[in-house]
Amino acid sequence: METPGSAPVWRFLITPRWLGWHLLMVVSCWGMLWLGDWQLHRALTGNGLSWAYTFEWPLFAGFAIVFWARTIRDEFRIKRGGGQVLAEAGAASAAGLPDGLGTRQVEEPADDAGDEELARYNAYLARLNAEVNSTHGKRHGSK
Amino acid sequence: MHAAVLRYRVMAYITGVVLMVLCFVGIPLQIAGHPAVANDVGVVHGILYIIYIIVAYALARRLRLTIGPTILLLLAGTIPVLTFVVERWMTRRYINPAISAAEPAAQPVSR
Is B62 in contact with A113 (Cβ distance < 8 A)? Predict the structure, then answer.
């Protein structure tokens, strides 16, 4: 993946900014699990209301981990030749023109929403091109 | 895009209102010795906030927000009034630009 002479892609993970995020991540997860544990103790001593929070805090910690992992994954995708991937996605989508432009993509975020925006833009460009070629210029502004 | 924005807005308003009820009605009543309202509304807010997080995170990914705004967006559901402030800010700063970019017909392109 890495080109000779350049730093490995994962190096961004140890920049001060990212180390700060990792630290925040660890501290907040630890804090949320601690709060969950505290609520568990309260629940066990008879506070029925605490049961809800006992499960809620670990759930939030889980959200934090998912959020963190996906952000890192996105960053990896962007860093290692994202441009090429984006272009391919755009070409693939532009082939399926022009009905219901992008409607499905809007409804289904999937994992890489980033590619969709570009795909839809490319699809739009291709549609414009098609309109010009078929001299159906009237469709401009009809939507 | 529209569906994601709508889901986010609905959850932002519901969560925001419930949170304000909790903080400005429930907590004073709790201090005055009537904890029932705070307890019930607190649990409701807890559940709504889970949904809010999911919906807001989906929107954040759709808008490709960076980490800072994403965290602010997610935390907005826990701080009274901030929910509404952030919703307005999101709309102005991110949602409207994204929508106008996604709808090329709204901005005729000249060749």
Answer: yes
Residue at B108 is within a domain: no
Would an 8 Å CB–CB cutoff place B64 in contact with chain A?
A: yes
What does DSSP assign to residue A98? S
Same domain, A28 and A88: no
| Token representation of residue B85 | 């402030």
Instruction: Determine, for residues B43 and A49 on separate chains, whether the beta-carbon distance falls below 8 Å.
Output: yes
* Pair A3, A19 in one domain: yes
Residue contact B67–A109, C-beta within 8 A: no
Residue B110 domain-assigned (yes or no): no
Total domain count for chain B?
1
What ipTM goes with this model? 0.73
Please check whether residue B109 lies inside any domain of the structure.
no
Distance CA(B75)–CA(B96), nearest Å, equals: 21
In tens, the pLDDT along B10-62 reads 999 999 999 999 999 988 898 888 888 888 888 899 899 999 999 999 999 88
Contacts of A142 in chain B (CB under 8 A): 105
pLDDT score recorded for residue B18: 93
Q: What angle do CA B59, B62, B68 make, to 5 degrees?
A: 70
CA R_g for chain A? 24
A141 lies in the same domain as A88: yes
Average pLDDT, chain A: 75
The verdict on B6 touching A (C-beta cutoff 8 Å) is: no
Judgement on whether residues A17 and A48 belong to the same structural domain of the protein: yes
